[in-house]
Here is the input.
Amino acid sequence: MEAQLRGGSDAGGVSRYLLHRAKPHLPPWLGWAGTGAAGALGSWRWEASAGAGVGLTASSFILTAVTWWAGKSTGKQRRLHSAVTVALGSGWLTAACLAGPTASPVGDIYLMGGPALALSWNARIVLRHNTDNSGTGGSSDGGLLEKVGLARAQIGAAKVEPNRVTAPLAVVGGEQTNDDVAKALVRIASALDLPASAVRYTPDPGSSRRGELVIVPEDMLAEVVEWEGPSNLGGSIADPLVIGRYDDGAPLLVWLPGDPDAGRNSTHLLIAGGTGSGKGDAALNLQTEILSRRDVIVWFSDPKAFQDFAPLRAGLDWGVEGGTDTEVMVEAVKAAIPDRTRWLGAHGYRQWVPAAALPQNDPAHSCQAGRACGCAGLPFLVAWFEEAANTLRNLGDDAFTGIAQEARSAGISLIVSLQRPSYDQMSTSTRASLPSVIALGCDARDEGFVLPDEVLAAGAHPGAWGNRRPGYCYIVSPGIPEDRYPSPGRTLRFTHNAVPVMEQLTAWAQANGATADPVTAGAATTVAGRAYTGRTSADSKPTPQPTRLRALDGEDTMEPDTGYRDGLLVDPEDAGIDPDTELPDLEEGDDAPIFGQDTGRKPSPEEARRLLDNALAEFEREGRMVVGPKDFMDWCDQHSLSRSWVSKRLKDAALEGRLEATSAAGRWRIVPALAAA
Here is the structure.
């Protein structure tokens, strides 16, 4: 019941209630009575005065015109009703002043027409404040929509939640559309004295004039909430990842794998935000949630040398610091996609689900006909490229395109983090293949790069934050209701107090987290060789390896590289030289001029093959699995070989299967020796 219906039931209470209900309807009647009194007073002053008649007639016309002009910002019906009322009232007043208020038919018009005109306004008030809000036939906005240019739009029954009001809205068919509502959101926020991000509109996909208006009166994101630990330690990566909260207090959730039962697709994720927008905290929220799950492994590239992620590095399955190592990781992810897809298909999975990470003891998911195969499970894989602008500059703007287009079906999520995902940094094909985004504060001119147009039209405005509100963000991702897309959220804050908890989480991941399955590990090893080791246990330490010395004939020795031979100091380059051996005969090119010529000699085909094999083996031992001509510059100088000869030999090695071309021009991936054999 309404508040005005509450109160005592005595005579005083009833009188107060009736007076309260009557007050909105009194102004038209007071106007009627006041007009009658003014007519009587004017008759006493100006009866039968020709000059007064001219002045009153002109005043009546001017007052009616001003009323029509002043009503242009209101609805057509209200404007017309007001102008007609003023015209009739001022016309009667003119007649009453000149002929007398009781003269016939002036007095009759007053007694019959005046109450009818007052009652018309009473009826209008009753219709405008219809208490039946079960549909959109009545409006309870108190004139708000008329003020913002949406006159005659109808608001239905509002759903009131803690710090969130949602109401269906329908604009006038044939005159207004959902685009008009989107343009009026800023004015609605101004009328309510709220920030622009507090008012959102979600159009109905089945209508161009209906949708839901969402108003959040209080910004609950102003309070900083610190991260205290993962939300679901030991859960599945298929469960939601909690990385913060919305402005109405609801949890900020993200899903990476798909769910066939819920109809949700697997997704890749873009994290975008300008300097100081809180992108690092957003990444830490997401990474700690991922590492706390039992059935996922993470490959992580960070050209900033793990400045923000050092406490978590030991919990990763594979972590690299950029450059060639990141290039190798990109190639490893590409190699893992077909192998993982093949495994999932052979075991009857159309997409990755948590059951795929378990030992395959179900005959329904077996690669052997009629019986359980017992194969090791396939954990979900997250391939994360932090500060990806660095990688894109080195590898080209389409470095991630193949992964983004193919990896989802292989149980792989690609996460790319960079400040500005514009077309000059990331190819449009890659951007189109990243369906999910965490959009933090950015330059207002970059909003179109990070959020879809329809989300911006619904009220999202990350450019309003810039770097002034770290952690504020919008999230667009499968699993999140579309009306949440324009709702701002804020990630949890990471401070120095979080470091001990992060270290404990890392220890838990080392002891309890998933390890790479044979399929994924095999693909990584095929590409990266010794550069891929997989996650090590918390108490394991790398075993010091003796330094191998390589003689010119390519054979290795196990002697430590001290530089001493028989007590004499020897240059490592000369360590394999036998001082008693005769100098070799001159070969073609040895006596060529040094200056103005292509430096270096041309070795025989047998020696060329041996030298290149030695060089590739050396790179492989060092973990440098992606190479190009520039990597051979020092090596060429050491062996007096020309650059053009190296380029030709690299092509020959590719034909022999020792090298494979990468997506970057002039770069080759070393095929490990065992795989090549």
The radius of gyration is 39 Å. The chain has a mean pLDDT of 81. The first helix runs from residue 11 to 22. DSSP finds 20 helices and 22 strands in the chain.
